[in-house]
Specification:
The complex is a heterotrimer of chains A (270), B (347) and C (614).
Chain A (H helix, E strand, L loop, with lengths): L8 H26 L3 H10 L1 H34 L5 H13 L2 H12 L4 H6 L10 H26 L2 H9 L4 H12 L1 H17 L2 H7 L9 H10 L3 H33 L1
Chain B lengths: L6 H20 L13 E8 L3 H20 L3 E8 L1 H10 L5 E4 L2 H9 L16 E11 L20 E4 L5 H17 L4 H13 L2 E5 L2 H9 L5 E5 H10 L5 E3 L3 E11 L9 H11 L2 H9 L3 E2 L16 E3 L6 H23 L1
Parallel strand pairs in B: 1-2, 1-3, 5-6, 5-7, 9-11
Antiparallel strand pairs in B: 3-9, 4-7, 4-8, 4-9, 4-10
Helix pairs in contact in B: 3-4, 5-6, 5-11, 6-11
Chain C lengths: L2 E10 L2 E11 L4 E6 L5 H9 L6 E6 L2 E2 L10 E4 L11 H11 L4 H14 L15 H13 L5 E5 L7 H18 L2 E6 L2 H7 L2 E6 L2 E6 L1 H6 L4 H6 L4 E8 L2 E4 L2 E4 L11 E6 L4 E4 L8 E13 L3 E8 L6 E4 L8 E8 L8 E6 L3 E2 L6 E5 L10 H11 L2 E8 L5 H14 L6 E6 L2 H12 L3 E5 L7 H9 L4 E4 L8 E7 L5 H14 L2 E8 L7 H16 L4 E7 L3 H12 L3 E5 L7 H18 L2 E5 L4
Parallel strand pairs in C: 3-8, 3-9, 6-7, 7-8, 22-23, 22-25, 23-24, 25-26, 27-28, 27-30, 28-29, 30-31
Antiparallel strand pairs in C: 1-2, 1-4, 4-5, 9-10, 11-12, 11-14, 11-18, 12-13, 14-21, 15-20, 16-17, 16-20, 17-19, 26-31
The chains are: A mainly alpha (270), B alpha/beta (347), C alpha/beta (614).
């Protein structure tokens, strides 16, 4: 507490000075540009069929991605936390790889694997299945890219749970599923919540992998970020900014809840 | 809890907001009674500058006519990018049924990849060429650098914004325009004159964008003194006065020709009549007039008078004058620009 | 019987943590498993609960074999050391959890929950969460939760371990009361003997995976069977004397050995004296009192009602101290207590014994050196042959100077021992130089025998090193026979030692071997009368041990030659050599080794080298 007030002025001022052009001003610019033509223009830009589709499609994909990865990620975290086995570390690294490699690379590799000329794509083609350049392809890419977030949010909580937590439930008569449902899962609530939100937020903003696997098809696979990019490239800055502002606002809300709940769950746990 | 709300109330609100968002997202896909059946869809890929003309005029007009004639709704799913990007996407298997490319060379590449039958576009009207537009220069207002021709781009201190010939069809046309203008001025020593012209221009290229559209956006954002681009792309804004620059017509330039391909393997048998009608429609007077209104020059010269904004070009030429894209690609784009000019500049 | 364990065994990573343990716990009994950490007591609890599966053996609860049932179906309650209260549930929800799982109706659940909350004294705290409770309260929640579904057996794993000493006592009394009220059979695991004494109807004492002894607290305290029991439970002094004429001799003091305690004449006997059995007086006590000696008070500590004293006595011939541990001195330390008010006039006191307890002879412990790198791998076949007849506990010692190899060595040792039929052998790995580490291990754990295989290339430096510092019989093994049927005890020249005859005889009795007592006549002719007398004394000792024995007199030029000749002709499996005090001085060391080495390489037989008694 001592010295928190005295002498804080200069470093804090410096920090703000650095952050201002780096983070705060660009975000503000999005909103300023979005509303430059007045709220009427903003709404009009949002109301076009393409913009509506892009927003809805992005949200839908984000919801699906969050829901599926919430289950998959929790399961993976549970398996990794519970079992000790040879090759555990390499596996954990491999699972976390999607965060480390550029999303464009992820998109490219998905395309090369599942695309019509890819390894699996070739096998699927005779069946009339073609996941790339379809909403399913976008979903696949998003699942892949955001997989580690759920794991990262849940695994530390699982690692922290005493082993005896589960054993206690067994001795009290609970079966495996009951133990997971009533004892483990509630203990992970905070992690599940923040992991799902993180996944949702990342899916909403995903660009690199999506641009590769979506084919950028308007009204079919064009997500909001792709729409923004396409509009911007076409010189329609106002249209781009309208959707960008909506995305930014959504991210703010999500971020707000993330901070809020990660704060309170931490308190509950100690 | 620092919460200003009671936790339970807040939880309820958050859940409600989440559900509302979900509902909004899935709304168009909900089976609400009374909602019209899903329309037939056509996936149409095009190179970058076509976006507005197709999305706003040409394709909606077709849908209207088709609905009048058959009662069926048609929805167009479109994607616009640099012609090379479109070609790559088609090769990778995007489910496009029709694509309008900025140069025949990309159609050849599709044929080589087996996406379309070799030469199939030549059986279409006008050898597959839907419309044309000349390559022009856009300079800053008042033309402060005094640029009037491609040769002026070689002058010291001129900064050129150019699309990238690796991904942009337009850039290939621009190369041909720069080369051809010089070559036609010095008959007999075409190759040397062309080489020098290209070298002069490319020494001054400060930004290479992935598509003609992107190059224009860069120019508008303040890059460079001059932009090499399609007349069509800048015509409307120039007429409206919203172009941050003015158009300069070189005395001699190329007329780019835009080739249509039909990707037969992506056309379901039931859709053949629809696609057939669409293809014929693109050369109809209705469609051609719409293109002219959007700044494309029609393949039917007689219609071009309808747009007074078209500037006069003393000596327009076409790719056929240089032996077609096969030769141009091999001898000029690869042989001169890539192997000689870029290597020399690269040093 | 509430709980019945039959020959449970369990290993982790090749190490046996529970060794063939059998136990019966009666209905309504509180049974306390007492032992140091790592003794395997918690593992037994987990095996009963079904939280881990035994490698072999059966578990019965109320006559029902539950060995293969999952924990959910065993009808047990388990209180964990860390309580494992579910943090996202309130106290009430925690206690109701087992009922909810069993689909007990709401009102009944509430009734049971309130009942249990009252029982553990937490009435009204149902809405609290774990982080709002003290450690003691959490422990009581865990107890209530473990009991609410009316289990037939309650298992408690160090339930007071994480609590303040202050509240432990209170909680112990509560626990005992609740257990009585419900009549539930309980097994409690602890390392705290005070806790064990207070709670237990019976105590089971565990050490290194073995249930050493079982009994009521008072009996266990007063009459432990084992040295571990004597020293782990309560304070006390253990002195080692010698059995003679049915009494334990501690110097001049003779303490009768009760007939039920098995002992061998002239063998070592351990006497346990609890502090309260020691009488101290400033004046010399009257005759007829069992006087140990006169000593000096060296330590005092005040314990409230009592004062604990430690008295140092001068060395008593033929008596050694086993506990409390002393090092590097010959004097004895005896612990005593006095009522706090009682005063002694000075530091000098007379020490006499009011009571004592004779410990049963211990299972012999064998330390087998496992040094494959030095050409001396453990002779597994021989060890296996010795383990049963000797009822011996075998430790395998390997020594390495490479820190990284310790774990690998331990694992490979356990694996090899198991493969050779010695699954209970305990691996010991030490870091350093072999001779020094063997000596250190011996000093630390007081083995009865050392076993070392002689390398093919002949007696090694390690053997020489051990002989130089030897204080324990050493079995130098060559060409390892399956067992020893014929044993030659060499008195060589001069007086036959007592130790060699006794140790060799003891071995022969256990193994059912025949013994020949050899004397080599160096100067030919008739043996001197004293030789005959000594041989007769030796024979008498052997006969008392009920060993088939005879004497042999052999004239020879040198002692070594005589021994070698006899060994060859008699086809002996083992030669026992005494090592006489006279040959110990440094000057004689090399000569001594030459003697041993010569017999080793000359005979090709295994050798047992016995140092004389101290």
């Amino acid at each position: 507490m001592i010295g928190r007030r005295n002498g804080a002025g200069i470093p804090v001022g410096l920090l703000v000075l650095v952050l201002l052009p780096l983070i705060l001003m660009p975000i503000a610019a999005v909103f300023v540009f979005a509303f430059r033509g007045g709220p009427g223009e903003f709404l009009k830009a949002l109301r076009t069929e393409d913009a509506q589709f892009a927003l809805r499609f992005s949200l839908l994909i984000a919801f699906l991605t969050a829901a599926i990865n919430a289950v998959l990620g929790t399961w993976a975290a549970y398996v990794l936390a519970k079992h000790r086995f040879r090759g555990e570390r390499p596996l954990a690294i491999a699972i976390n790889l999607p965060v480390a490699i550029p999303t464009v690379v992820v998109g490219t590799s998905l395309l090369l694997l599942w695309g019509p000329i890819g390894l699996f794509g070739k096998l699927l083609a005779p069946l009339g299945l073609q996941p790339m350049f379809t909403p399913a392809g976008v979903l696949l890419a998003h699942l892949f890219v955001t997989f580690p977030y759920m794991l990262g949010a849940v695994k530390p909580l699982l690692d922290e749970l005493e082993v005896t937590y589960e054993e206690a439930a067994y001795t009290l008569g609970a079966g495996r599923w009951q133990t997971f449902r009533y004892v483990i899962l509630p203990a992970l609530k905070g992690g599940l919540f923040s992991g799902t939100l993180l996944t949702f937020a990342h899916s909403l903003g995903e660009f690199g992998a999506t641009v590769m696997v979506s084919g950028n098809l308007r009204l079919r696979t064009q997500t909001a970020p792709l729409y923004i990019f396409a509009q911007f490239e076409a010189g329609k800055v106002a249209q781009a900014n309208a959707v960008a502002a909506v995305l930014a606002a959504l991210s703010f809300v999500i971020f707000f809840f993330l901070l809020r709940y990660s704060g309170t769950t931490g308190k509950e746990r100690t | 809890m620092r919460s200003p709300f009671r936790p339970r109330l807040e939880g309820g609100l958050v859940t409600a907001a989440g559900l509302a968002l979900l509902l909004y997202a899935v709304w168009p896909w909900l089976p609400v009674p009374g909602r019209p059946a899903r329309p037939r869809t056509v996936v149409f890929y095009g190179f970058s500058i076509l976006g507005e003309a197709l999305n706003e005029d040409v394709l909606p007009e077709f849908a209207r006519g088709w609905r009048q004639r058959t009662g069926e709704r048609v929805e167009f799913i479109t994607s616009f990018a640099g012609s090379g990007t479109v070609t790559n996407q088609l090769t990778l298997g995007v489910p496009a049924q029709v694509a309008l490319l900025s140069l025949e060379l990309d159609a050849e590449r599709l044929a080589a990849a087996g996406v379309v039958a070799a030469g199939s576009w030549r059986h279409l009207p006008h050898g597959g060429v839907v419309n044309r537009t000349p390559f022009v220069l856009v300079v800053r207002r008042g033309n402060p650098k005094g640029i009037h021709d491609f040769s002026d781009l070689a002058r010291p201190g001129v900064r050129v914004v150019h699309p990238d010939p690796m991904t942009s069809g337009g850039a290939n046309w621009a190369l041909l325009a720069e080369y051809g203008a010089a070559a036609r001025r010095f008959p007999g020593r075409e190759e040397e004159a062309g080489f020098e012209a290209l070298r002069g221009v490319w020494r001054h290229v400060v930004a290479q964008a992935a598509s003609a559209r992107a190059a224009r956006t860069q120019f508008e954002n303040g890059f460079g003194d001059v932009l090499v681009t399609y007349e069509q792309d800048v015509l409307r804004d120039a007429a409206r006065g919203t172009l941050p620059g003015e158009i300069v017509y070189p005395p001699s330039t190329v007329l780019s020709e835009h080739t249509l391909v039909v990707v037969d393997r992506n056309v379901a048998p039931a859709d053949r009549p629809l696609i057939g009608a669409l293809v014929q429609y693109l050369w109809s007077e209705t469609a051609q007039r719409l293109f002219v209104r959007r700044g494309f020059r029609s393949v039917d010269e007689g219609l071009n008078a309808a747009n007074p904004a078209f500037g006069r070009i003393q000596d327009p030429f076409r790719v056929a004058d240089f032996g077609g894209w096969d030769r141009v690609k091999k001898e000029i784009v690869d042989g001169i620009w890539k192997d000689r000019v870029m290597k020399e500049i690269g040093k | 019987m509430s709980i019945r364990l039959e020959q449970l065994t369990k290993s982790f990573g090749g190490q046996r943590v529970v060794k063939s343990t059998s136990l019966e716990v009666r209905d309504g009994e509180v049974f306390v498993l007492l032992g140091a950490s790592g003794s395997g007591k918690s593992t037994i609890l987990r095996l009963i609960a079904g939280l881990s599966a035994p490698d072999s053996g059966r578990i019965q609860l109320h006559g029902r074999d539950v060995t293969d049932l999952p924990p959910q179906e065993r009808g047990i309650g388990f209180v964990f050391q860390n309580y494992s209260i579910f943090r996202h549930m309130s106290v009430a929800e925690n206690i109701e959890f087992p009922l909810k799982i069993r689909k007990v109706a709401g009102p009944e659940r509430t009734r049971r929950r309130e009942q249990l909350l009252d029982l553990v004294g937490l009435g009204g705290l149902g809405n609290r969460y774990a982080h709002q409770l003290s450690g003691g309260q959490q422990q009581r929640v865990a107890l209530a939760r473990a009991l609410v579904h009316e289990p037939s057996v309650l298992l408690l794993d160090e339930p007071f371990g994480a609590l303040d000493v202050k509240i432990r006592g209170q909680l112990r009394r509560n626990l005992k009361e609740i257990q009585r009220q419900l009549g539930v059979t309980a097994i409690l695991v602890t390392h705290d003997q005070e806790e064990a004494f207070e709670l237990a109807d019976r105590v089971g004492l565990m050490e290194r995976g073995e249930l050493l002894e079982v009994g009521e607290p008072e009996a266990l305290y007063a009459r432990p069977l084992t040295f571990f029991g004597a020293t782990f439970l309560g304070a006390g002094t253990v002195l080692v004397g010698r059995a003679r004429d049915g009494a334990a001799q501690l110097g001049a003091l003779s303490l009768p050995i009760p007939p039920e305690v098995e002992h061998e004449e002239d063998a070592r006997v351990r006497v346990l004296v609890r502090p309260e059995q020691v009488a101290l007086s400033a004046e010399p006590p009257e005759r007829g009192v069992r006087l140990l000696g006169r000593g000096t008070i060296v330590e005092q500590s005040f314990l409230g009602a009592l004062r604990r004293l430690r008295v140092r006595l001068p060395a008593i011939p033929g008596t050694r101290q086993a506990s409390p541990a002393v090092y590097g001195e010959e004097s004895l330390l005896v612990d005593a207590v006095l009522p706090a008010g009682e005063d002694l006039s000075g530091p000098e006191v007379w020490v006499s014994l009011k009571g004592w307890h004779i410990l049963a002879p211990p299972r012999p412990r064998i330390l087998a050196c496992d040094l494959p790198d030095a050409g001396s791998p453990a002779p597994f076949a021989l060890l296996q042959a010795l383990e049963g007849p000797l009822d011996a506990r075998i430790s395998l010692l390997s020594v390495t100077d490479d820190t990284d190899r310790v774990e690998a060595l331990r694992a490979s040792q356990t694996e090899r021992a198991a493969a050779h039929g010695l699954p209970d052998a305990e691996p010991v790995v030490r870091r350093g130089e072999p001779v020094a580490e063997i000596a250190a291990e011996q000093v630390q754990s007081l083995y009865d025998f050392l076993v070392l295989k002689t390398p093919e290339s002949g007696p090694s430096e390690v053997l020489g090193g051990i002989l130089a510092t030897l204080s324990t019989p050493l079995l130098a093994v060559q060409e390892a026979p399956a067992s020893f049927a014929r044993i030659l005890i060499c008195t060589a020249v001069g007086e036959p030692g007592k130790a060699d005859v006794r140790v060799g005889g003891w071995l022969a009795r256990r193994l059912g071997a025949e013994v020949t007592l050899l004397h080599v006549l160096l100067d030919g002719g008739e043996p001197a009368p004293w030789v005959k007398a000594h041989l007769d004394a030796g024979l008498a000792t052997l006969r008392a041990l009920e060993v088939t024995s005879r004497t042999a007199l052999r004239p020879a030029r040198t002692a070594v030659q005589g021994i070698l000749d006899e060994a060859k002709e008699g086809d002996y499996d083992l030669i026992v050599l005494g090592r006489h005090a006279a040959s110990r001085p440094a000057a004689g060391r090399s000569r001594r080794h030459d003697f041993t080495f010569e017999i080793l390489s000359g005979s090709g037989k295994s050798l047992l080298i016995v140092p004389p008694d101290q």
